[in-house]
Write a structure and sequence with these properties.
single chain; 140 residues; mainly alpha; 0% strand; elongated
Length: 140
């Protein structure tokens, strides 16, 4: 009989899915350049429609949740980069990638770090609750 993993546990299949999605995300972002922002905005819009707010978890519990948070951060920072691209109009343009792509990359990894910090905080909070909780008396 197979034991089911806990909901707060990342499975090897979930981690493989996360790595695959990370690779696809990076490839699409670099290949499409500035236009990848529109692609990811569409993805976020679809996620909002398909997963309404009342169905989302406040703290990510799976690799799919982690990816969703990272893509939302990516789009937010990509919009900032897009505005910077349009405002500077090539005066302060980076050598290799436009500000939009750099913003998306930075936002994506900041989103991943944010999720990691939330998971560490949740783990420490649970550990502290276990330490502070008085032990029950055991009958013998």
């Amino acid at each position: 009989m197979e034991s089911k993993p806990r909901f707060d546990q990342f499975t090897p299949r979930g981690m493989f899915l996360l790595v695959t999605f990370l690779s696809v995300w990076l490839a699409i972002t670099v290949l499409l350049g500035t236009y990848s922002l529109f692609f990811w905005c569409l993805a976020v819009f679809m996620a909002i429609v398909l997963g309404p707010a009342h169905q989302r978890r406040s703290i990510p519990e799976s690799s799919t949740d982690v990816l969703a948070v990272a893509v939302v951060w990516s789009v937010a920072w990509g919009v900032v980069g897009f505005v910077l691209d349009k405002a500077t109009a090539g005066k302060l343009a980076p050598v290799f990638l436009p500000w939009t792509v750099l913003g998306q990359l930075m936002g994506f990894y900041l989103g991943m770090i944010w999720v990691l910090l939330q998971l560490v905080y949740r783990h420490l909070d649970r550990a502290m609750r276990r330490v502070e909780r008085p032990r029950s008396h055991v009958r013998r």
